[in-house]
């Protein structure tokens, strides 16, 4: 009797799992049933069809994303500087060894990271630095992106927008947690350019020391964009000829809760800290 009951219960559980699987999209099924961790080590790794284990890591992040990762996987990146330009068209997490240890570097010539629409991506414990692109020198995001313990440093969008990150479009969602955006520059939105219905939520993060020639030294928020800062700092950002040293927000929504706004400057039109309509 006990064996028959156990067998019946197992069949019921299997049936429930099958029904849930049939209701989930393909990427979510992979996440539930086949999520893996893929190791990358620039010093000891080799890009091959079998790379990705701790003993035989891949050499580059791009190879791991394109050739080894599935939706829902985590790419674990060892300490080192990775001279790469990543296009991420999968829902993955990329986890480094720390902001000062794992660095993805654009070499001052290329965009560092691009997130495709529809993807759910996490970058954690790493730095994105020395990127260069007209829109989103460090990162261009059209998907759902979380930056956790990430530093965006010294990225530029010359003559364009979003030196650190361009979060643009109705599908763009950006979450910052314990992250720093500093030393980036652009024409508009030195740290962040957020527009066209995009959303930024930041908690316990710092946006400082970014520079633009036009508007929005720290943050440029336009065209129904939505920026929410909590327990964060917006400081030392600069506009050389426009307004909104800290943030420029017109035709958009901004909300600050327990936020420090200090030491931002706008040399031409004033509105050093906050410029809004």
Task: Outline the structure in words.
The structure is a single chain. The chain has a 15-stranded parallel β-sheet that branches. It has 277 residues and is mainly β. Strand 1 (37-40), helix 3 and strand 2 form a beta-alpha-beta unit. The protein contains 3 helices and 28 strands. It has helices at residues 2-23, 26-34, 61-68; strands at residues 37-40, 74-77, 80-83, 86-88, 93-95, 102-105, 113-115, 120-129, 139-141, 144-153, 156-161, 165-168, 173-177, 180-182, 185-188, 192-195, 199-203, 206-208, 211-215, 219-222, 226-230, 233-235, 238-239, 247-250, 253-257, 260-262, 265-266, 274-276.
State the major sheet.
15 strands, parallel
- Portion in strands: 35-45%
The tally of strands reads 28
Discrete helix count: 3
Helix content: 10-25%
Low-confidence segments, ≥5 residues, pLDDT <50? Answer: 1-6, 12-22, 26-32
Mean pLDDT: 91
Distance between the termini: 74 Å
Structural class: mainly beta
Instruction: Report Rg.
Output: 21 Å
Shape: elongated
Chart the SSEs and their pairings:
Elements: H1 2-23, H2 26-34, E1 37-40, H3 61-68, E2 74-77, E3 80-83, E4 86-88, E5 93-95, E6 102-105, E7 113-115, E8 120-129, E9 139-141, E10 144-153, E11 156-161, E12 165-168, E13 173-177, E14 180-182, E15 185-188, E16 192-195, E17 199-203, E18 206-208, E19 211-215, E20 219-222, E21 226-230, E22 233-235, E23 238-239, E24 247-250, E25 253-257, E26 260-262, E27 265-266, E28 274-276
